Known about the structure:
- The chain is of the alpha/beta class.
- The protein folds into three domains: 9-138 and 306-323, NAD(P)-binding Rossmann-like Domain (Rossmann fold), CATH 3.40.50; 141-301, Dihydrodipicolinate Reductase, domain 2; 357-439, ACT domain (Alpha-Beta Plaits), CATH 3.30.70.
- It contains 15 helices and 17 strands.
- The protein has helices at 18-29, 31-38, 54-57, 68-71, 89-98, 108-124, 141-148, 163-175, 179-188, 197-200, 203-217, 236-244, 306-323, 372-382, 414-425; strands spanning 9-14, 42-48, 63-64, 78-81, 102-105, 129-130, 154-160, 227-228, 247-258, 261-272, 284-291, 295-302, 357-367, 387-392, 402-409, 412-413, 435-439.
- The strands form two sheets. Strands 7, 8, 9, 10, 11, 12, 13, 14, 15, 16 and 17 form an eleven-stranded mixed β-sheet that branches. Strands 3-2-1-4-5-6 form a six-stranded parallel β-sheet, sandwiched between helices.
- Helix 1 crosses helix 13, helix 6 (108-124) packs parallel to helix 11 (203-217) and helix 8 packs across helix 9 (179-188).
- The longest helix is centred in the C-terminal third of the chain and has 18 residues, at 306-323.
- The protein is elongated, with a radius of gyration of 25 Å.
- The protein starts with 8 loop residues before the first strand and ends in a 9-residue tail after the last strand.
Amino acid sequence: MNSDKQRPIRIGICGLGTVGGGTYRLLSENREEIARRLGRELEVCHLASRTPKVQFRDAGIPFSSDIFAVVDDPQVDIVVETIGGFDPARELLRRAVANGKHVVTANKALIALHGNELFELAKQNGVTIAYESAVAGGIPIIKALREGLAANAIQWLAGIINGTGNFILTAMDQKQRAFADVLKEAQALGYAEADPTFDVEGIDAAHKLTILASIAFGIPLQFDSTYTEGISAITIDDVKYARELGYVIKHLGIARRSERGVEMRVHPTLISEKRLLAHVNGVMNAVLVKGNSVGATLYYGAGAGAEATASSVVADIMDIARNSFHEAGEKTNTGLPSLAFNQLNVDLPILPIDEIDTAYYLRIEAEDKVGVMAKITGVLQNFEINIEAVIQKEPESHATGKVPVVILTDTVREKQMNQAIQALEALQEVPGRIARIRVEELDSEESQ
């Protein structure tokens, strides 16, 4: 196993936080099992962290406070980047690739915004940038899209790909607690950051969806074209009314290809409580993929955490070890294209949000007067919007004189709905803003 012909493949890890530390521990704990699978050993030969990590300094492995020392180390074959953020991570990857080193990264933001450039540099230098751990933690969804479903034309995918948002919506639904209250708990438990914007406003999920859509449809990464909407405006009333209608609110990333182009959107979504995705709760992640041959397939598991994410990091290291090294140790590159397609479709248009077709949930606070409901339905009829269901409650307070009206519509073009909402909000009897949540039926998904 350790002969000159079968020397270990040497790993350098940059960043020793949750994911980097978990990767080091997994490589150590499962060393023998990994070696049996590969037919050779993986050896961590250099560690680096910008902050002191006493436990790793005592590991008997060269340790640097300068992360660039790892990518400049001639002993390192594969660089693992788990520092996160854009800078200096972007320059770290550029330098690693220029030095002829393969890279494994968990940095979804970096891939979503700068992946096109980095993948081209990797191709020019004959190395691989692998990034399974950047999306959905331990769920091998990228491998499934790139390899397992490679024979399919992917029609659509929909996923719960941010555990923090899912934890909050689950608690709002199951415990009838307000958004702000659950967010504080998520922060106390370590599920949400002190600044939770990336999670609750959908930016983290949009990074991940951008990556999944590119792999699914063979298009360049286009984060700026991904519509992004968070969950901070969701109320307890919305959650309760959704249940009355037979739906659950989930924060979904949805990518769909049609004859008109590709949809990429992240937003709160009503899905039928009979659907499998409706039962993905807490911090768990799940991605549903519809292929033209295989039909709908579901991928479920832990979307974050040291062990789960490290599992994907090490799997990428092992893939590179199999595909990119001869027996004598010389480097080659026989791995898959970075985005699964040898030729990307650069001409496939990305549809703006006002061009998508979906059904809608509307919550309207209207004055409690005779004829108000007729005016509301009349506006919707004027814009050729069909009503599927209505909930009209008694006024909660006679002092306000307002009554909640909840409407579920048929499928309609978003710009048409926007015009209708503008007309509804112009009614004297509708003094406030209208809450709007999109509804997805997720055709061809098996019910629970």
